[in-house]
Amino acid sequence: MIGVGLKAGIAMGIGLPGGGCAAAVRAGAAPYEMPLESEPHLRTLMQWPVALATYGARDLARVQAAIVRVANAIAEHEPVAMLAAPDAIGLKRPAFSGGVEFWEIPTDDLWCRDSGPTFVRGADGKLAVAHIRFNGWGGKQPHANDALVAPRVASRLGLTLVDSGVVGEQGGVEHDGDGTMLAHASCWVNDNRNPGLSADRIAARLGVALGARKMIWAPGIKGADITDDHIDGLARFVGPGRVVIQIDDELDPGDPGSLSAHRTLAILERATDARGRRLSIVRLPEPEDIRSRREDFVASYVNYYVCNGAVIAPQFGDQRADDEARETLATLYPGRAVVMLDIDAIGESGGGIHCATQQQPRG
Known about the structure:
The protein is of the alpha/beta class. The protein has one domain: L-arginine/glycine Amidinotransferase, Chain A. It contains 9 helices and 19 strands. The protein has helices spanning 52-55, 57-75, 112-115, 136-139, 149-157, 199-210, 256-270, 319-332, 344-347; strands spanning 14-15, 21-24, 32-33, 41-47, 80-84, 100-104, 118-122, 127-133, 160-167, 173-175, 180-184, 214-218, 235-239, 242-246, 280-284, 305-307, 310-314, 337-341, 358-361. The chain has a 5-stranded mixed β-sheet, sandwiched between helices. The radius of gyration is 19 Å and the shape is globular.
């Protein structure tokens, strides 16, 4: 969900523009590593939303229909496991394609990127689950079932559950698969998730959990949305040393989201990755003439999902921007089909396709 618009011991942060810093995590301390999303998957995990009190009956039905579309699109390219209680509200199994199976794991909402398991791989090739503990984005939404999704998936698969030592969401941190992380501090260095923990300690613990050696921090915005400004709605690692960001051409000083985006861009332009390389940055457009008229609609092309053989991305009805996004994603992920879907109901709920999915890499 994105909302609107190692071991103890970490090197001293290096000051960067806009209040950011780069934290160098001690190398060689992590027994596991999180593979890049574009590496081959065994399956995709998704969660069936049933939070009637959050959505209301009409909006819940629309969100559920969008989840079916996303699941069926991914199932054209790799298996999908839909997590749901056997008697889940609105779950009609015939609506799903044959590539979708159902795991009897109760859920509250659809945000599998945040509450689902973070799969990591050891040097022996075996998978484990790095448990980034989920608390409803700082206690903002009921999450009795969602808080247990990651350990229940680990148990079902017989995988080791490794406590990361931090509370948060995978949507709040990007990893390039080669030692570098990127995050907004606003959703980690926050008393609603990790009271008393400094940015350095959080980066160190995430570094152990994900197998990273360096964190690039940008400030983000606390309280602007339910997530406290997740990074995966703004900027993503395409690969080592490569970042894609969605940003308006000119800073709007009256828009907190624009301020946050331009601060993040300034930090990325000065940053280096864990291997000392300057980052290559590609921009995606901001759509303008979109279908939805919801004021808090999330129109993020960056919140796409990479599965086996395809990139599953949103389209918002702005033909110019939709076409430009399609072309850019096709260039960034050559050899993959770019499948663009109408997921307006999910955007109106504060997220996108990446937020609703979680990859299980091959072991």
